Amino acid sequence: MPSLLLPHADIKAWLDRLGTDGELHAPLRGRDGAVRFDVVQQGVIPDLQALRSLLPPKKYLLPPNDTVLRYTQADGYHLPLQATTRLILLGLHPCDLAAIAYLDRQFFGDQPDPIYAARRQRLTLIGSSCRPDAYCSCHLSPSPLPAACDLFLHQTATGFLLMPETPRGSAICQATADLLRDYEPKPPPSPRDHFGVAMPPPPQTELDPRLPDWQELANHCLGCGACSLACPTCSCFELLEFGGLDGRTAERLLRWDNCLFKGHAEVAGGHSFQKDRAQRFRYRYRHKYRGYGPLQGVPSCVGCGRCRVQCPAGLDLRPLAERLEKGAP
Ligand code: SF4
Ligand code: SF4
Questions:
Q1: Is 136 in contact with 111 (CB distance < 8 Å)?
Q2: 101 Cα: distance to centroid of ligand 1 (angstroms)
Q3: What interhelical angle do 212-220 and 318-325 show, nearest 10?
Q4: pLDDT computed for residue 196 by the predictor
Q5: Tens digits of per-residue pLDDT, 75-104?
Q6: What is the DSSP-derived secondary structure letter of residue 64?
Q7: How far is CA 255 from CA 34, 77, 109, 185, 195, in A?
Q8: How far apart are the first and last CA of the chain?
Q9: Which of 209, 234, 272, 322 is least buried, going by the fewest C-beta atoms within 10 A?
């Protein structure tokens, strides 16, 4: 069966058609030059050539500030109502799709998170191919997780090859069939090619906490947290409870937290499990490159490069990770 090609000339009509099935969000370049996922207004063509957005698409699943519980005297604690409008996220690169696959594993684990599940259910994910730059490491250490997308667009010189991955993706192809052309040349690459399948197993040796690299790296870190904020798989949070002055209502808020912040591991009494920045650095490394908890052995770094682009101190954990993976001291 021939593949389906969406010619460049028909992309605008295709996007307008997509927008009738839900609210379309895609990468848009702002006046400041930064690329952000945002709602696409009728007639606007998103920047599908942009390599990475400032914030990753995790913001659709895990907003930075979120009410997770409400309390009233009459009903006790209850989950807040969630929006049900369908959202179509277009232009997700393989690293961001792998990141969503990672978050799915995390939030649909032993105890599925109902708020995450409701948000995930309303998303249609449309990926698009890209070319890694010097900041990317997706091609060096591909995520072992399969793509989490409904439809994948592979960019060619003449247009986009459409590759449906789920019934939702096939339905989009059928609904826009009049805009698509048959594409006969050799079979297109599978979107899974962008993720690779092999990930070198992490070394089993326990890391030596006295390795000088941690301290050396930590000495340069400003503790600003930009790397974690920008990371598509970082999901640390803190919970805050606010009681109403009437004594009858309350709200529990979730707010993004950051493992490189000094207060992150603080507990009652002012004790901290990670007092030193070097300890916090080591923690971040382990989480990103070794996995943790039930996801032990599954790296959460998908190689998007955002942390490297945004670190004001120019820090990069990747060379350290490579050395440790090879077992070098
Ligand atoms: S650790 Fe850096 S390169 Fe890896 S997924 Fe997070 S932001 Fe991207
Ligand atoms: S972005 Fe750089 S300076 Fe800021 S916390 Fe991360 S590693 Fe440290």
A1: no
A2: 14
A3: 170
A4: 38
A5: 999 998 888 899 999 999 999 999 999 999
A6: S
A7: 24, 19, 21, 49, 31
A8: 53
A9: 209
Token readout for 72 is 């009233």
How far, in Å, from the CA of 327 to the mean position of ligand 1? 22
Residue with tokens 């790397």, as numbered in its chain: 227
**Domain limits, the chain:** 3-55+81-194
Confidence of residue 206 (pLDDT cuts 50, 70, 90): low
Tokens of 245: 């002055």
Report the C-alpha gap between 243 and 326 in whole angstroms. 52
- Give strand ranges (E) for 48-122: 65-72, 76-78, 87-92
With the most atoms of ligand 1 within 8 angstroms of its CB, the residue from 140, 304, 317, 320 to mutate is 304
CB 27 within 8 A of CB 47: yes
Going by pLDDT thresholds of 50, 70 and 90, the confidence category of residue 326 is low
Q: For the chain, what is the mean pLDDT?
A: 86
Residue 185, amino acid: P
Question: Which helix (DSSP H) or strand (DSSP E) does residue 126 occupy?
Answer: strand 123-128
Residue type, 300: S
Which residues, judged by CB distance below 6 Å to any ligand atom, belong to the binding site of ligand 2?
A: 221-227, 260, 311-313, 315
Q: Which tokens hold the place of 297?
A: 């052995």
Residue 252 near residue 241 (C-beta atoms within 8 A): yes
